[in-house]
Amino acid sequence: MEQKVGVYVCSDCGIGDALNLEALENIARNEYRADVVKTAPFLCSQEGSQIIKDDINNEDINTIIVAGCSARFNTDAFDFDPLKFVVERVNLRDHIVWTQTPKADQPSEAEEAAPAEAESADSQAGGEEAETEAGAAEPAGEAEASAGDSSAAVNENTQEMAEDHLRMGMVRAKKSELPKPQIEEINKTILVIGGGATGISSALESAAAGYDVVLVEKEAELGGWARKMYKILPDKPPFEQTRKPDIDEKIKSVQDNDKIRVITGANVKKTAGEPGKYEVTVSHNSSSETINAGSIVLAIGWKPYNADRLGHMGYGKFPNVITNVEMEERTSASGGQITRPSDGKQATRVAFIQCAGQRDPEHLPYCSTVCCLTSLKQATYVTESDPEAAAFIIYKDMRTPGLYEEFYKTSQDNPGVMLTKGEVTSISEDETGNIILEIDNTILGEKVMVAADMLVLATGMVTNALPAHIEDVTDLTPEYVGQWRETETQDGIIKEVIADPVVLNLEYRQGPEMPYLKYGFPDSHFICFPYETRRTGIYAAGAVRAPMTAMQSVNDGGGAALKAIQCLELTAQGMSVHPRVGDMSFPEINFTNCTQCRRCTVECPFGVLDEDEKGTPKTNTFRCRRCGTCMGACPQRIISFNNYSVGMIADQMKAIKVPEEDDKPRIVALICENDAYPALDIAGLNRMNISPFYRFISMRCLGGTNLVWIADALSAGIEGFLLIGCRFDDEYQCHFIKGSKAANERLGKVQETLSRLMLESERVTQVELAMNEWDRLPQIMEDFAEQLKEFGPNPFKGF
Amino acid sequence: MADKVLIIGGGMSGITSAVEAAEAGLETVIVERNPYLGGRVSQLYKYFPKLCPPYCGLEINFRRIKQNPKISFYTQAEVQSVSGSEGDFTAAVQVNPRYVTEKCTNCGECAEACPSERPNDFNFNMDTTKAVYLPHDLAYPMRYVLDRAACGSGCQACADACGYGAIDLEMQTRTVEINASSIVMATGWNPYDASRIENINFATIPNVITNVMMERLAAPNGPTKGKIIRPSDGKEVKSIAFAQCAGSRDENNLPYCSSICCMASLKQATYLRDTAEDSTAEIFYIDLRAPGKYEDFLRKLEEDENVTMTKGKVAAIEEDAATGDPVVTVEDILGGGKIKKQFDMVVLASGMEPAAKSASIPVDAAYEANGFVDAENLPPGIFAAGVSRRPDDVATSVQDATGAALRSVQSSAKTPAVAGEKAGGN
Hints:
The complex is a heterodimer. Chain A is of the alpha/beta class. The longest helix of chain A has 23 residues, at 550-572. Chain B is of the alpha/beta class. Chain B is globular. The chains are: A alpha/beta, B alpha/beta.
């Protein structure tokens, strides 16, 4: 498309008072040959945006630069069709004027600078008169006193900051092309892996929304754990009574549903492709077939913790020590009779030990969420089996959250159930096969002895995302179970875990499964976005991703189904899913210059890129989340989006005017658009003053940071780089999982290089900033600027 | 026939249902009572267990709303009546006047000029705002609001100060009609009124506050700009007692467990511990409920010598007249007897009460005994999400709200006319 550029500068909200807008207009007109340049008051008003609309209609403007408030505000006023118009917002107000114009009641830094700026501002003051008259209505008396003449005269530093930001915005817009969405015919079938309560829920829910479903279950029958239950927990108000499982009815509705195809006794051998285009090889009955699917729900559930590891609690040692799973199976099999293994005798005194392995750093450091409820349920089996029978539950903390408290209360009211907090100090067996427990620190007094016919260990849940042979979850390799491998490439050594296949067998370069978080759970790390798994189009649901009750799992199956549907609908329109929902750009690789270094395929947080044997990357657009981490990773600079590229940002930096004077350092701040950009807005809203020497470049994610910029910019006289992004340790907040971490690892390299060049490595620094830490920003920036000052001018300046 | 989902409540659950359904292709409209979206989470300083800011996720969600033409919303709005049935509901929504139009640029001149103040409900009345105010730093929509009840008679200082003609003192209440195929109730919760708990003396002892107040006290945009100081005298707080189950698990108050208060207090203990090396927190609890992987967070706090966990229920709080310190009496469950102890401040882990209970939402909904929506017994086309259904944490509420979005999609899929419309739309 032929660009017709319109630049629209807003003069309101103090912008016109603080800046020489005529000078800004001249930059757009003379330096960048914009076709239309206009300054208008109140640009976000109907009249204001009408000016732009008129130019679109009359002047064929298709590239629109709005220099006014933050890109986060007044989005409706500047909401032009992204497939027809490039829109770039230059944040003069929140990031510049509001962070530079002191509020009346704050000590003014501008005062010190006032004498210097008075002369140079003379030449600019002319055009400013009209604007400041409007501003004279300002009520703040102090402001007039301190800034009296400087409000008429524009602060030179503020003006230069605005001018550079306009230049950078011009460059960015001019370098942008309209996205050409990749739209293909896609398959909208949803594959659900796992036919337990969660998977059944996902299948039924997806089908009810009108989608075809293939449900794959490894066992011969559907139903999972639910079929083994004698009774299930209450799942409806008033949450008081257990009831018979209704899994058989649910299985029947799956089987009767003509939108659901069930394949039992089946395993997934291979999952190839990308959202909308998965080809999944499923083997069953010693044959295999390829299923075409668009998205996948992973509902493979949990397995009980290996009780053989609980010998210290008598398991495997004393026959009448069983697990809660065995208790369930035995009661189911006997139709409610409670008998013990050693002699088949009726067990009328049954003890339960909670946290048998859970909440124990040696076994399962986490709480399995359901075991307190399960023991309360199984206690009712005991008391219902015989009016004289008693259940004795020893717990650390009784965890029956929310409305399940009602169920706890019914147990407390049950005369056959005794409950106490306590520590079990010894477990032994007497000659009759009874289990003798010694309990300390109970509500009933210090030391208590309990003799039981049988002891039930309330063991916990381990995710099935871990390979079957893994028993110890406390010491897992990061992200996958597997072996470390080092690959030597021309770009250095790549150290990674080569993962063992478990269930998906993904044909993805980064590994065959979903990467997991702590303890093997392939869960989302985001509180606000619980379905953000790291493989686009594949959504984990139920106990595979976190310990949860059956009620929660059924619910979770529904939520994951919606995400699977949503992925299909967005993919069909060539749009990205969360967090850049609707983004129609995608990365393209110029293969002629590819050196097969593998950086992009290794660093992509979502496993988007595959590679051939040589290491040449293959893009899988529909897996992509558009963060640009690949673009930042590429040493050859050959990965670009058509509206976001290494060259574009490099040119933005080149657009910064670097003055000769040493007291005017130029510092580039790369800011994450998700958190740092709004944090800076909030700092502006609160009129916090920041150093005027910064030039902000907004990034989709810091992961897009390419090292070439740093060398270029330092040689152009930029004094330093501050990268402001999200936290990147285990508690990461990066919306793209590993973007800010990838940036930080790259910085380590550039810092080495700087040291070799006898430049201070701290000239390039990354800080982690959460959005609610906006109040720290001015100080962080001031400190960095101060440090650069101490280093003295960048020796490359002027070369 | 409408292919639209009406979502009652614009907190985390409502927003989630709206964006998730819209991104799956439906039109959604949120009706929110406050002048901003974001609900309770926007008042939180940090989330457990990551200690990350709720603003971060809200920002992403607001962006999803801003760029999606399928999502619309009304703030300061309440549903007055609902008629019809699945596929064709009609809701009358009363939109109360904001007195500030969309012309507002949030420049702040109006508040500078405003001579009147009002208690700041966003900060649980621990400070004041001008009568014309921006609800908070991330308020969406980012627009001022005028509280007419707080205005001086005949005053129009804000309107005079506004350079954009954005203040309309004559703005009237209006009623809009929304046609919807399905309805999601995401009405959320209110903090339980702690003054109703006997012997705790929340209403009379200034240095006894609730957990929601503690969130505001620690937040950099709170009444003290993030300084944890005492309401009575502004003294720096060095010791806090957290009283768990303040209202919850109590037959005289809230019989159920509010699910989040243990984790909230553990989190708030870190707020205090971050202020000073010698600060101390003591948590009095019945059971420490840190389910699932939250256990790691509990363990981290247990490793801190200055955080003590004592199994015991706070039975009474009195004020030490000389110092203003609250003195707590605790029934020691394990040791037996009573503990009496003095602290700089007490934080009541007060529970969550379903908001629908008091808001009398005119939807033909079934409620369980405590006032939570009984989602299993709702009429076709009406769904519930998040804490309207049961007390839960943010992640679980979002999970639930995503499920509710699915129900709306299913509801739309039932109506053949809608399917045709959808195909045409694409």
